[in-house]
C-alpha cells in the first residue's frame, strides 16, 4: 500500500500536558550500542491501526516497568474505541484511551494479523475484558517536544514513546529510513520508540515496528527526521498522582517565598519554580518536581488555589491579589 495514512494529525491544544512542565529528566549519554531493547512484534496487517498498536506496546512497557513483566495488549481494543470514521486514528485520542480505558490482553481480543474490517469489529468485547483492560491503564498522557534528546531522555527511564512520522514509501522500506529531497509525503505512521543509540555518528531512536514494510520489525530513525520536520507526534505515559491531599496540608508544610512579579501562562523562570513548590505542597499541582515552566497544569492549579482562597476572577493568572495571598 503506497498511500498509507494510519495516523491522523492532531490539532494543537494548549491544554495538553507538556513534558517541560511535568518533569526534568537527566540528559542521556549518546553512545553506539551493539544491541537494542525490543519487545514482541505486533502486526497490523495493512490495517490503519499503527497508532493503536504503538499505544498497546507502550502500555505493555509501562507494566514491564511496574511489575517486571511485559504484557501483550490488544491494539483492537484501542482501535475500536476511536471516534473518527474511516481508517486511522489520532495520536491524542489513542493516548487518552490508553490513559482512561487501557487495553485488554491480546489473547482476549486478538489483533495481530487482522485486516481493517476485522480491526473494526469489537463484538467480542465483554465487561470482564474491559475490567482487565483498565488494570493496564497508563498514567497521564504527556507530549514531548519534537526533539530527539528529549525523546531519548524519556526512553532512558525505561518508558516507550509514541512517535508520528511523515514519509514517502520508498524512503521507509529499509531498516534505516533515509530522507530524500523532494519526496512526496504520502504516508503518515505511528511507531513506538523503545531505545536510542549513535548510528554512524548520528543520534538515533530505535523503534519497534508494526507495519512490516521490507520485512523489518525494528528500524533506526536518525536525528534528521527530527531536524527536518518529519516527526509529527511524540507522547508518553506518566504517573502524576500526588501523595498529599489539600486537607492534610498545614501552613508549616508550605514553602515560604515572597512573590514580587506577576506570573502567567507560557512563562519560564525561578519564580515559577517557587510557585510550583507551593502548589505541589498543597496538593494542587500534579507534576513530578518543580520545572519552572508555567503550562496548562500550572494554570489549572492556580485556578484551584484562587477558588480555595476566594479570589476572583478565576483567571489562572498570578496577579496582585493572588500574589498577596501567596505571600501571607
Which key phrases capture this entry?
globular, single chain, Cathepsin B, Chain A, about 325 residues, alpha+beta, 12 helices
Write the layout of secondary structure elements.
Blueprint lengths: L6 E2 L8 E2 H4 L27 H18 L7 H5 L9 E2 H10 L15 H4 L7 H9 L4 E4 L4 H8 L5 E7 L1 H4 L14 E13 L2 E7 L9 E5 L1 H4 L3 E8 L31 H12 L14 H14 L10 H7 L2
Parallel strand pairs: 1-3, 2-4
Antiparallel strand pairs: 4-9, 5-6, 5-9, 6-7, 7-8
Helix pairs in contact: 2-4
What does it look like?
The structure is a single chain. This protein has 2 domains: 232 residues, Cysteine proteinases (Cathepsin B, Chain A, Alpha-Beta Complex), CATH 3.90.70.10; 81 residues, Orthogonal Bundle (Muramoyl-pentapeptide Carboxypeptidase, domain 1). It has 12 helices and 9 strands. A 7-stranded mixed sheet has the order 2-4-9-5-6-7-8. A hairpin with a 2-residue loop joins β6 and β7. The longest helix has 18 residues. The N and C termini lie far apart (64 Å). 41% of the residues are buried.
